[in-house]
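**Backbone shape codes:**
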Amino acid sequence: MNEQPFQVDVAPGIVRRRDRGLCVKGKRITLYLIMDFLKDGWPPHLLRDQLLLTEEEMQNVVDYIAANRESFEAEYEEVVQHAAEEERYWRARQEALQKRLDERVGPPPNLSPEQAVAWARLAALRKKRKGEAA
């Protein structure tokens, strides 16, 4: 069986993990996350402190991105696009579930008396919430 190793060193302090892509070595922090922060205008020294990276780790990330700008940007865009697709999928799924829940009329059958009381309270709260949202 020709199985890919879990992680491969790609540069000093940078690894490619099968489950996450490019990461800071020894951490679960992706370079894509760091790039998101950098694009949002975070200075590297504040980002380093926020993500609990050493100065060397942060410098390795900045150096890797600078040295591989074109290929990294292309990969980053793929990751962003994939994340957006995943978000659309899960939002649509959540909306469908919410629609099914909203269409449900009355309590489910075979509730105990305690469950029936709880169901009635929940229904009243839902009705109140819908009235506030309208």
Notes: The CA atoms of residues 12 and 41 lie 25 Å apart. The helical segments are 31-39, 44-50, 55-67, 69-103, 113-133. The chain has a mean pLDDT of 90. The chain is about 65% helix and 10% strand.
